[in-house]
Inverse folding.
């Protein structure tokens, strides 16, 4: 029978096996790199979007405000997620609340849009499913990038890190699709642009709770 | 170690958690940046290890059906059975053997036995339950 390792023996073994590691870049540096990726995604949406009247809409303050809220909410959510992967960095309640406030405000602005689109339920679902799919597509790569960054760190609460990573990726994706999608009706926006953010954040929270804390398993 | 002792009453578990904390610190070492003070980083990881341990313990206790009944040993002649039982008890881990000795050989109540073992009544019941399971297996072979 082998004797259980004593702390001294364990420390000696860990020291003998330890290799020099490059310390993590700060969360803000990694956030800046991630935002470059997101800027490319938004640029792609502007270039290849279906909206012909984007120039006119960009002169509309509520449209710009809504986009600004989605983008800033996404950036703040990504910041919380990246900070959550570094033990000892405190995240205040206010920092955690801001993305929620901005998402709620963006949803409120979406609901204010009085444009109505005549059409059948089938058309509503078909056009909505297309937006839903595009949002998932736009969110995928940034979410994977954030996930990899979190996995390389040491999240103490996988659920929180996962929630904010999902929210960040889907908020930016919703902003990109808001630029690209020509439909402005509030029902379409709330159902097919707003709902995927909540769904994406919830699924990412579940994934985070299951996998992001595994670094600390004995 | 003092940080863990203040949060976990059982000294055996403190030793395990101390080693788990060392491993977690080793795995998370790239997240520490030297100019920052080390204490918040270190204690955040230690708190996480303790919280995870508590969570698992709660889940385990909710899942396991605790039994106060000793497994029945085959009754042969008294002397032989007693020698066999003593040999089997020697093969149990110290904390499991202690649980059986306090509860069944000394006949203490769960609360009194837990106080003697320096743990909580719930944790002692879990230990005894596991000890019975091991005893059953050992006596069956």
């Amino acid at each position: 029978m082998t004797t259980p390792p004593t702390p001294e023996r364990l420390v000696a073994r860990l020291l003998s096996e330890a290799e020099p590691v490059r310390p993590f870049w700060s969360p803000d540096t990694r956030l800046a790199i991630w935002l470059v990726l997101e800027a490319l995604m938004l640029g792609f949406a502007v270039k290849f979007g279906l909206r012909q009247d984007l120039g006119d809409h960009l002169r509309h303050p509520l449209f710009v405000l809504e986009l600004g809220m989605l983008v800033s909410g996404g950036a703040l959510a990504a910041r919380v997620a990246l900070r959550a992967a570094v033990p000892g960095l405190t995240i205040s309640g206010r920092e955690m609340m801001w993305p929620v406030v901005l998402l709620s405000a963006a949803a409120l602005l979406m609901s204010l849009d009085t444009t109505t689109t005549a059409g059948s339920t089938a058309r509503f679902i078909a056009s909505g499913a297309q937006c839903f799919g595009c949002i998932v597509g736009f969110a995928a790569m940034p979410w994977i990038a954030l996930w990899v960054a979190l996995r390389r760190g040491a999240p103490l609460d996988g659920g929180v890190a996962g929630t904010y990573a999902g929210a960040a990726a889907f908020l930016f994706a919703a902003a990109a699709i808001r630029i690209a999608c020509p439909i402005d009706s509030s029902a379409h926006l709330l159902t097919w642009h707003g709902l995927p953010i909540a769904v994406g954040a919830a699924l990412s929270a579940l994934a985070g709770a299951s996998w992001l804390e595994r670094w600390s398993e004995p | 170690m003092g940080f863990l002792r203040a949060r976990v009453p059982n000294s055996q578990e403190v030793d395990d958690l101390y080693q788990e904390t060392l491993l977690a610190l080793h795995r998370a070492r790239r997240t520490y940046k030297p100019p920052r003070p080390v204490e918040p980083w270190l204690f955040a990881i230690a708190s996480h290890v303790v919280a995870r341990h508590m969570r698992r313990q709660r889940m385990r206790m909710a899942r396991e059906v605790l039994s106060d009944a000793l497994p029945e040993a085959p009754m042969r002649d008294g002397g032989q059975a007693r020698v066999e039982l003593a040999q089997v008890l020697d093969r149990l881990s110290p904390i499991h053997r202690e649980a059986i000795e306090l509860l069944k050989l000394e006949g203490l109540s769960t609360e009194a036995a837990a106080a003697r073992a320096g743990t909580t009544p719930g944790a002692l019941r879990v230990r005894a339950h596991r000890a019975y399971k091991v005893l059953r297996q050992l006596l069956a072979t």
